[in-house]
Amino acid sequence: MKPKAEFGVFGGSGFYSFFKKGEEIYPETPYGFPSGKIRIARVRGRRVAFLPRHGAHHEFPPHMVPYRANLTAFAGLGVTRVLGPNAVGSLKAEVKPGDMVLCDQFVNFTTGRRDTFFDGPETTHVSVADPYCPELRRIAIGAASNLGISVHPTGTVVVIQGPRFSTRSESKFFRGQGWDVINMTQYPEVALARELEMCYLNISLVTDYDVGLEGDPGTKPVSHEEVVKVFNKNIASLRSLLAEIIKAVPLRRGCDCGKALEHARLSA
Predict the structure, then answer these.
(1) Cα-trace Rg, the chain
(2) 3-state SS class at 69
(3) Is 119 a catalytic residue?
(4) Tell me: the pLDDT tens digits for 71-104?
(5) Is 210 part of the annotated catalytic residue set?
(6) pTM to 2 decimals?
(7) Active site residue: 99, 104, 115, 208, which one?
(8) 3.40.50.1580, 3.40.50.11740, 2.60.40.10, 3.40.50.700: CATH of 7-259
């Protein structure tokens, strides 16, 4: 059966303007329904499925997002590449609000999330040593250059449970580890995509300085209002970048993401 979509895009309501027209579906999966209706349309001549990660009305907080249903719904449409834009807080002075970071590593500090498709009886250990697709990251760097968008080409995102923001002591610890940005949704989303042998690209839009910059009383701790304000201010650039990436991606994958399960299962 011909895939209904090549790409899956997670994001907020600002991305609906990607699609002037499009088919809407709401598929049930073995893990329940996804977080909202999936809209399928063409972007730069390619079939793209869009799903609001937190629901159409932001009704799913980070720890309640149905991650397994979301990724399974994409897989059922034939999606092999997932683009995951998200809002992040900065842990470094040089990573400024309005910047974009193409993360290549994550550190997980979440708890209790259903973070695997493999609950037995077949034991499966999938490698996420390099969790983000190198081919998509390389294409994203080139697309940003073509558009004159400045991006940080690498970065480590620390993923916290949410929905609360960090204490000053927690943020100081994260900064002390040398990590770059902080977020609440990258895990288990990217790990589940790897288990489904999908390519995954993270585009982190920096909206704030987490609890503020150390030693700079002029910066304030993050607020949800400020996150939304900065994200909306940069949504046009983010949409342009996604469209440029989609246009530049080759039809055939040139990475090993599609082979993630080859050596992941233990023999009897």
Answers:
(1) 18
(2) helix
(3) no
(4) 999 999 999 999 999 999 999 999 999 999 999 9
(5) yes
(6) 0.93
(7) 208
(8) 3.40.50.1580
